[in-house]
Prior knowledge:
By secondary structure, the protein is mostly helical. The chain has helices spanning 2-8, 13-24, 38-74, 82-92, 106-114, 118-140. Helix 2 (13-24) packs across helix 3.
Amino acid sequence: MELYCSRLAHYGIDDIRAAIEKLMFTRREEGETAFPDLPTLDEYIRAAKNARLRTEREQRERAEAEAEERDRHEHPENYFDVRQMIHEFVKSNGIEVLPPQKPVSLEGVTAALEVLTAADLRALADVVEKREGMKRRERRV
């Protein structure tokens, strides 16, 4: 029993409890003891711990996504639409693309980006930096 205790001491009690509950409803083979060997118990506990961690991670990610979505709706000024910015830039430089009100296909954006020169891309980066600076100043006010 001391071997079991020392080996399982680093697991949380809830993980051990979940593993034992699962083992309680597992059929034993002919001649198998009621209490499993240490490797089997260890395997069930690790599986319970992994399931718990996966569930916690999924819940955390879902909560973060919901919080970000709420923030996007409550503070749209903190976010910008890259497609919209590309369209504004391309339009201001005389490159014809679909109007911003219509859905943009990936082909249209890719085609528009292919005709941009290095100077055009730098100018686009300047536009992005300028917008970010304006947003930072607005947040400070």
